[in-house]
Amino acid sequence: VDWGQLDYLVIDMPPGTGDVQLSISQNIPIAGAVIISTPQDVALLDARKGAEMFRKVHVPVLGLVQNMSVFQCPKCKHETHIFGADGARDLAKALQLDVLGDIPLQVNIRETCDSGQPVVISQPQSDAAKAYLKIAKEIVRRLPVPPA
């Protein structure tokens, strides 16, 4: 594929340390990796393996994102940590990485994505959109400056 001149190319990969991750890290110059995980223990095992693999192949790990960090009931606003609390934060500390942000578990995130109008486009002032934009800014801030 000829992408032309790009500012950024983001590749969303499945969790783990499989052939896809190794092939990409060996064949494409990568400015950095972001590890995304829910706070639950089983997901954090894959996140740890991924971060360690990228470090072994000399890809800078820019930080961790805690996905589905909290569910807030749309009616009563009570918050529930369905997948546990702060698991990605604990892992980041153990790996000496920064947490780039938290993405809540919200129905409107799924609905807006399914409709083709992601929350950052359809509801740019929402807390969910602000969470995504904060993470994007943190990632860009950590990337090396491209040559002019």
UniProtKB/TrEMBL annotation:
PROSITE patterns: MRP. One of its GO terms (cellular component) is mitochondrion. Coiled coil: none annotated. Keywords: ATP-binding, Nucleotide-binding. Gene3D superfamilies: P-loop containing nucleotide triphosphate hydrolases. GO terms for biological process: iron-sulfur cluster assembly; mitochondrial respiratory chain complex I assembly. GO terms for molecular function: 4 iron, 4 sulfur cluster binding; ATP binding. It comes from the Eukaryota. It holds the Pfam family ParA. PANTHER family: IRON-SULFUR PROTEIN NUBPL (PTHR42961). This is Iron-sulfur protein NUBPL. It comes from Acanthisitta chloris (rifleman).
